[in-house]
Amino acid sequence: MKQLIPQKSPFFSVIFTFVLIFSYCLPSNFIEVEARGFRRGGTRGGGRQINRGGRQGYRDFDRGYRQNNRQINRDGRDFDRGYRQENRQGNINDRQGNFDERRETRQGNINDRQQNRQENIDNRQQNRQENIDNRQDFRDDRWDDVNDWRNDRWDYWNDWNDWVNTRYWVGLGVSLLAIPATAIAVSSANQDYYYNEGVYMQSQGNSYVVVPAPIGVVISTLPEGYIPVSVNNLNYYYYGGAFYQASSGGYVVVQAPVGAVVPFIPDGYEKTLIRGTTYYQYGGVRYQPVYDGGNLVYKVAS
Q1: Given 108, 143, 166, which residue is the final one in a domain?
Q2: Which of 52, 93, 184, 241 is the most buried (most CB within 10 A)?
Q3: What distance lies between CA 268 and its chain's CA centroid?
Q4: 4 three-class SS
Q5: How far is CA 235 from CA 23, 97, 191, in A?
Q6: Same domain for 296 and 180?
Q7: What is the mean pLDDT of residues 155-168?
Q8: SS3 state of residue 276
Q9: Segment 45-66, tens digit of pLDDT
Q10: Based on the structure, what is the number of domains in the chain?
């Protein structure tokens, strides 16, 4: 069997081996070269192109995004500007409305104050006129009352004077042989007197002399025809040149109050002239003639 296998030459074996190795290495080298070329040209170029495209796309996307955002921001600013403008205009309108309302209110208040001021002026004027009228009415009424009182007083005094003139009156200093049967005994300061219807008498020997009313004498009743007199809110009663005041026992003869005014003085007075002024003296009392409402009266002087 061994003999049937021919013997090969070492040269051919070497060549064959070389060829096999070369055949094996040649495609690998071509593939490697092509691969390197593909990587250099295809892969790198494609990656670069992809990257370039990606960057360009990103740039375009980012530009568009920014453009959209810019437009959105612009629209937002326009909307916000319009909103603020609308609010501003609304605030202006509100302020204008408030201003108009305040001005209207102020004008209304001014008108109300003016009206109230005018009403107050009118009311004060009316009240002033009413007060003037009331004071005038009161003054007229008071003077009417005074005149009525004067007339009544003069009527009373005239009636009293007429009554005195019709009755018997005994003046001071007259000496009487006897006293009236109706005379009563009175005393003052340890002096005895006789009293009868406003006339005071004192015993002198066998006669009785008419004297002024003794201060301090008390009588039970006032003589008929007395005249009431008021001085400094005090009440007096005048009769025959004597002044009386009410007391616990009746009526007491008192000093003539200064300032008292009487319509007349009984007969028997004395006329004196002091420093150019005429006075009338009666019963130790000095009177000054004065006029009251055109009528002559007599005022007790100091």
Answers
A1: 166
A2: 241
A3: 67
A4: helix
A5: 177, 80, 27
A6: yes
A7: 53
A8: coil
A9: 666 777 777 777 777 777 777 7
A10: 2
